[in-house]
Write a structure and sequence with these properties.
The protein is α/β, with parallel strands linked by helices. Helix content is about 35%, strand content about 20%. It is built from ten helices and 14 strands. The strands form three sheets. Strands 4-1-9-10-11-12-13-14 form an eight-stranded mixed beta sheet, sandwiched between helices. A four-stranded mixed beta sheet has the order 3-2-7-8. Strands 5-6 form a two-stranded parallel ribbon.
Length: about 325
Amino acid sequence: MIVVAGEALIDLVPSQQEPSPQGQLPALLPRRGGGPYNTAIALGRLGSPTAFCSRVSTDAFGESLLHGLRGSGVDTSLVQRGPEPTTLAVADISADGSAGYGFYADGTADRLFTLPPALPETVRALSLGTCSLVLEPGASAYEALLQREARRGVFTALDPNVRPGLILDPDAYRARFHSWLPHLSLLKLSEEDALWLAGAETGAGRDADRAAVTAAARRWLYAGPAAVVITRGGDGLAVVTQGHEVLTVPGERVAVVDTIGAGDTVNAALLHRLAAHDALAYGPLAYLAADAWEDVLRFAARAAAVTCSRAGAEPPFAAELAA
C-alpha cells in the first residue's frame, strides 16, 4: 500500500476561461483538490492500493472530499476528522492554462493534523508535500511522520509544490526543506520550485536556468534522495540519479485546458510505475536502469497530459493510459 499524507481542500476555479467583464466578479466552481489529495486520487485511479492520511472537516466540503476518495478506491481509515472549515484555494487560470492560487487556510481542519500511530506494516511508500508541510501546527506533525516512517525503512517521496504566498520566511523554509532531504528516497519538483528552493537567480534564459536546476539536484542528491525528478511543463520530465546521470523525456502533445493537478498526477504515476519495476525501495531506485527510468518518465508524462486535457484536477484511469 502507498500512503499519501497532506491536505485536502476545495479549489474554486473560474467557470469559464475568458476574463469576466470589467467590474464583475468571476463565477467560481468548487472542485476537490489539494496536492496530496489529487495524488491519492490519481494513485487510486491507476489501480495502486492507496490510503489517504490527513485531517478533513466534517462540513459539506469535507464529506465531498471523502466521497471522492472512496469513489477512486482510496482507503480513508487514516483520515482524522474535525469541525473546523475546509481550506479553500481560489485558482487564477492564465492564458496558457497554468494556475496560481490564493488560499483561505486560517483555522481550517487540515492544519490541525496530529501524528498518527505507526502506519501499517503493509505500507510500501509514503508521499507528502505542498501546503501541509508549511502550515503549522500540522506541518510539524507531517514532518514527524516523514522522519518516523523513513527510520523504519518506508520508501518516502516528497513534492514540495512551493506556494510562496503561504511561506512567511523563505530562508527558514529552505533550511527546513534541506532538513527533510536525509529522510527522502525520491524528490520530485518543478523547475520553478527547484530554482526557488535553490535561491537561484532567474532570467538568464532557459538553458542557464536548467543548468542551475541540475546543479541544485546534484547537491540535494548528496544529502539523501536516491533520485530527483524534475518536471518541465510542456517540455517533459528529467531525472538526476545518484550516478549524476541526467535522463530526459519529452512532454506529450495535448490541447491544454488547464494544468491543475498535473504535477500531482506525475507524483502518482511515478510511484505507480516504480512499483511495477519493483523500485519502491531506496537501493533499487538508486540503481534503476536507464531504460526503466525512461519507461517511468514516459508513463508520467502521458498521465499528466491527460490531466491537462480536461478542466480541474481529473487524473486518468488506468484504462485511459492503456488505450
